[in-house]
Design brief:
Blueprint lengths: L6 H13 L14 H14 L3 E6 L4 E2 L2 E2 L6 H6 L2 E2 L1 E5 L16 H13 L3 E5 L18 H4 L4 H19 L11 E4 L18 H17 L5 E5 L7 H6 L9 E5 L9 H22 L2 E7 L9 H11 L3 E6 L22 H9 L3 E4 L1
Helix pairs in contact: 1-2, 6-7, 10-11
Length: 365
């Protein structure tokens, strides 16, 4: 395992910090939840000046392969897996065996267990269907959150769907039967207009109620292995970012989703967006005792050969982030050019290996 802060040291750090404000004896046993353990692990990484590198669906498929044992475009170049693996639960609400990108949920669970066993961490998003129209997450022809209070059938459906995600996540356990902690990032990019829970399709109050509704259902089901990530989109002012903020008791990670568009010509705009937003997000996270993360980013096709070391790395080095995650590498024959990490033979592969070799990045064996 490369350059990684151990879980044990992180837990000890959590326990020692947690005891500072307790009137208990030093010999009293301190019990921590899986979520608290992961929070401590992320804190320890930030304190060490490091960050996890993340990649969506990393071992499921890549530029020219699918479901190959040990497969990973990232590992093919660096010799290691990403420190963080990202997954999506879209379609689990319909009891599908596969998610919206065709990844079997059984495969996903096995890979989450494997990633945890090798010392890595996992993050989960959820591109669920529109419960009012039946369309996908991007279907904004109907706005469920505007109807929720007056439509019991709709509310019951949404509650059932949320419950299914809670059951899946709570059921993630290692070989010893211990729950595996995961970062859960629901209702993401809500400041954009493209999702049915986003701006224009709900009021800030309705969005906040949705978040609280989700948390209530998870709590009722006894889910204690979730670290909650809030991740609005790009180009926001502090007021924009916090208008839909659910509250400190509901959020553990302050994230941002900011992509690089326009290839080389869009580099400066990307840099400014990241600097402007991550700066105030990190400052506010510190004030509130939260974690900062760059929850989604990337340059589609990695069209700049030194993007990882000359564009991304300088930006994330400036901020105390726990992780940065790029999006998936779709199979090229199915979605040409839709990849965010280099693959063997790509012009950016050598630069990506340099990024990996930087002592601040965390990958895992």
């Amino acid at each position: 395992m490369k350059k990684i802060i151990t879980t044990l040291s992180a837990v000890l750090l959590l326990i020692s910090c947690g005891n500072k404000n307790k009137n208990t004896s030093e010999t009293e046993n301190v019990s921590t939840t899986p979520a608290q353990q992961l929070i401590a692990q992320l804190d320890s990484v930030v304190n060490a000046g490091q960050f996890y590198f993340g990649h969506h669906d990393d071992p499921a498929y890549g530029h020219d392969w699918k479901y190959v044992e040990g497969g990973s475009d990232v590992k093919s170049i660096t010799g290691e897996y990403p420190g963080l693996m990202s997954w999506d639960l879209g379609m689990i609400e319909l009891d599908s065996s596969k998610n919206l990108d065709g990844v079997p949920f059984a495969f996903m669970a096995d890979e989450i267990i494997a990633q945890d066993a090798r010392g890595g961490i996992n993050a989960i998003s959820w591109h669920l269907r529109n419960p009012l129209s039946g369309g996908d997450s991007w279907d904004v022809s109907a706005s469920p959150l505007k109807e929720l209070d007056n439509n019991k059938a709709l509310a019951d459906t949404l509650d059932s769907w949320i419950g299914k995600t809670a059951v899946f996540i709570s059921g993630l356990k290692d070989k010893e039967g211990n729950k595996i902690p995961v970062i859960f990032r629901p209702w993401h990019e809500n400041t954009g207009t493209w999702f049915w829970w986003g701006a224009g399709n709900s009021t800030p109050e309705q969005y906040i109620d949705l978040w609280k509704r989700t948390r209530k259902i998870f709590d009722e089901k006894g889910v204690d292995n979730v670290v909650w990530a809030y991740s609005p989109d790009k180009g926001l002012t502090p007021e924009d970012y916090f208008t839909t903020y659910p509250g400190d008791e509901y959020v553990d990670i302050f994230g941002s989703d900011i992509y690089h568009f326009g290839n080389a010509a869009g580099t400066e705009e990307y840099r400014q967006r990241v600097k402007n937003q991550l700066t105030f997000v990190a400052e506010e996270a510190k004030k509130r005792g939260k974690i900062t993360a760059f929850t989604e980013t990337g340059l589609e096709g990695v069209t700049i050969d030194d993007w990882y070391t000359q564009v991304l790395l300088p930006l994330v080095e400036e901020q105390p982030i726990a992780y940065v995650c790029v999006w998936r590498n779709a199979v090229d024959s199915e979605k040409p050019g839709h990849y965010y990490a280099p693959y063997p033979g790509h012009k950016a592969a050598a630069d990506f290996k340099k990024f990996h070799d930087n002592p601040k990045t965390i990958f895992v064996k």
